[in-house]
Amino acid sequence: MLTCKQLVEHASDFLDARLSLRERLSVRVHLALCVNCRRFIRQMKVSQAVLRQLPDAAIPELDALLAKLAQAQDPSRKY
User: Fold this and answer.
1) Pick from 1, 2, 10, 4: which is nearest to 36 by CA?
2) Model pLDDT for residues 15-66, shown as the tens digit of each residue
3) What are phi and psi of 78, to 5 degrees?
4) pTM here?
5) Do 43 and 12 form a contact (C-beta atoms < 8 A)?
6) CA dist 64 → 6, 14, 55, 57, 60 (Å)
């Protein structure tokens, strides 16, 4: 059976249906027995759904803010 740490390592592939049958079964068995990992997978699904709803186009204000934050972290770099 998978450990919780192993499940976390497989979580993205599980949600994206990129696991082999054996790996999927291992994840499902673990989820059947572990309430914390079930909660984690539910949270991952919600996060994916929210991210899918974000606009694809770049947001100029966000890009400018990210550049300012990066500059504040490392003033020696030019962005």
Assistant:
1) 4
2) 999 999 999 999 999 999 999 999 999 999 999 999 888 877 777 788 888 8
3) -105, 130
4) 0.67
5) no
6) 38, 35, 17, 14, 6
